[in-house]
Amino acid sequence: MAAKxxxxxxxxxxxxxxLGQADAKKVDDATARFYQQVAARQYQVIYDxxxxxxxxxxxxxxxxGFMQRIDRRLGACQPPVKRMDFHTxxxxxxxxxxxxxxxxxxxxxxxESVTMVLRGGEAKLAGYHASSPLLLTD
Length: 138
Known about the structure:
This protein is an alpha+beta fold and 138 residues long. Helix content is 46%, strand content 33%. It is built from 4 helices and 4 strands; from the N terminus they run H-H-H-H-E-E-E-E.
């Protein structure tokens, strides 16, 4: 009987590991889609498809203007590189993952933090932060 319980525990652990990988893939895919939309300058589309956490905290005009400022100031950027800077948080509101990225752009370096929320099997942008000294100048 103990062997039977151990088998069920093993199956449960394997299944939860697969679900975790599937969820991680959804978050990674949503992040890749976000960066594809940034490269295509589809800032309004990004905003419209974002989670309420982002839309409730910033207006579409400010978000689009900020993204355009990044583009204007930093120029074309290389693909983002993950930093060893990530945080996860599971709440009753969803599973949140914040990941840090570095980008080398034509006019300088850009550090970013992208937060995705996984809710109802769908990953969406919940937050975005970017920093560069070039963003502080007129």
